[in-house]
Amino acid sequence: MTLTETPPDLQVRDSRAAALAVRAGGLIVVLLATVVTAVLELYLAPLRIGGVPIGVAVLFAAAANWVLSWFAEYTTGRRWPIAVPWALWTALMLFAAGARTTEGDYLVTGDNWVALVMILVGSLIFAVYAYRAILGRTVASRPARPAELRDPQLDRPRL
Is the separation of the CB atoms in 133 and 83 below 8 Å? Predict the structure, then answer.
């Protein structure tokens, strides 16, 4: 080893620190994205065309929550972070359903079927993604591990 080479133990420590930084950054990004998409979904819920409510908020909630779940799993490499955006999104929706504006109006009312279906579908999307991840049929693709780090028992294809 020459003086200009980095010792192997420092390389491992640096790579672990970088991986931890990516995971923490991924969780921060997914938390911010969850707040933004939840607020946008609440704004889209009362959208009407010609007095008829349209369900664009339901479609947006389904797509956004699937992407949030995927991003949380992909950036961390673990399944448990799916619960982070799920819990935050659900808390925001429950707050919106019970909060009143300064004029006394509710953000999500019981007669707005789009908002109610949006809350149901949005939560179910998180649940379906988590269920698929638990079964091992996750959507997030993980990079292949180097051959010296592979465990033949874990890398066997499942039947």
Answer: no
Residue with token string 């019970």: 98
Distance, first Cα to last Cα, the chain: 46
Which residues of the chain fall below pLDDT 50? Answer: 159
3-state secondary structure of 129: helix
Cα–Cα distance measured from residue 127 to residue 83, given in angstroms and rounded to the nearest whole number: 9
The residue with tokens 């465990």 is: 151
Give the three-class secondary structure for 153.
coil
Residue 52, strand partner residues = 49
Find out whether 63 and 125 touch, Cβ atoms under 8 Å.
Answer: no
- The DSSP annotation for 1-39 comes to --TTSPPHHHHHHHHHHHHHHHHHHHHHHHHHHHHHHHH
Distance between CA atoms of 53 and 38, rounded to whole angstroms?
19
Q: Where are the domains of the chain?
A: 12-139
* DSSP result, 63-117: HHHHHHHHHHHHHHSSSGGGHHHHHHHHHHHHHHHH-B-TTS-BSS-TT-HHHHH
- Interatomic CA distance for residues 48 and 35, integer angstroms: 23
